[in-house]
Amino acid sequence: xSEAFTLYSYFRSSAAYRVRIALNLKGIKADYRAVHLLKxxxxxxxxxxxxxxxxxxxxxxxxxxYAIGQSLxxxxxxxxxxxxxxxxxxxxxxxxxARQLAYAVACDIHPINNLRVLNYLRKxxxxxxxxxxxxxxxxxxxxxxxxxTMLTSSAATxxxxxxxxxxxxxxxxxxxxxxxxxxxxxxxxFPTLKRIEAACFELPAFADAAPGKQPDAE
Amino acid sequence: xSEAFTLYSYFRSSAAYRVRIALNLKGIKADYRAVHLLKxxxxxxxxxxxxxxxxxxxxxxxxxxYAIGQSLxxxxxxxxxxxxxxxxxxxxxxxxxARQLAYAVACDIHPINNLRVLNYLRKxxxxxxxxxxxxxxxxxxxxxxxxxTMLTSSAATxxxxxxxxxxxxxxxxxxxxxxxxxxxxxxxxFPTLKRIEAACFELPAFADAAPGKQPDAE
Lengths: 218, 218
Fold this sequence. Notes:
Two copies of one chain form a homodimer. Chain A is an alpha+beta fold. Chain A has helices at 14-26, 47-52, 71-81, 92-106, 115-122, 129-152, 168-180, 191-201, 204-207, and strands spanning 5-9, 31-34, 60-63, 66-69. Chain A is built from nine helices and four strands, in the order βαβαββααααααα.
């Protein structure tokens, strides 16, 4: 396996944040290329980037000549080409649980609240900041509430979402909690999530992946 | 492995449709339990179902005493406990590509257009049918357009999205195309998707999973 990985990222993107955590956990030092989602009409729409990622979204990882988009596809790939430390448990039921928690964020919270969706609510739909934040908070509260229940109702929950090592579930959860703080979500309602977040931030892999620590942070 | 699988499904849910296709491809006859998303204030909110799936959404698969939610977590699980026929290619780059295509639907099209999101646009946001359909069509056109480009720009595309056997990519695509027909999307703009859809429907696994063929179809 080639050790050369390139990461196309935007510091504030929570999908890119996930991949930054995963790369750090794997001990992979990727070449960081900033794609500014707001400058130049959105650098993700530049033809050179669109060729790498026809969805024109971040992140993209380039490795061994392949450009891979979609944070979860990238993380599953990393887990296959560099299995240690694993990002998923070994047993199929445990893997399903970690993935279910990850998708509960990645499919059912984040896509409804990302920049392009919020922009559409503003224009053409004409909603003001208050309504946009109410929208965001509604979906985040609903989603994090379900995840809190999934975590408190299972003996498989440990120091992290699944057992005592971080998995895809934690990697998706942490950036989503950062997003939650931009709305009106009361995170005190989710004590298990807060406990797990604190455990994650004791690990440099999570702390170093935070938006404020990226080369393109503003 | 126990051969007893139970599927909680709603005939019109495209996430449930994916899992029905995957079960059929694997040759698994699951016990079908209908969860009507509109009757009784939404049967997915009944306490007995919420205990199986705290997100209160379909589908859920119960197997070997575990209740698994999230269609993609279920399908990865099926591929692990019953590997033949595989739902993903063998090579990591191919697996990443099939997953990327699957997530392009499952993360970036479907969640923005599912029933609960469209309901929120209607109430409290007050949009009429025309605006709701414009919303739906916007995200579907954008998403399917990117997927068409991903497919036409890669030599890995075959009879199906990746090579000549169906993968998670096709399984996610086909229900999304059915949804597209409920809006104003012009599918003629996506000839590769239409060709692949036709190839899929030659397989009973896809045809038999269609909403109209389910026990709870209306």
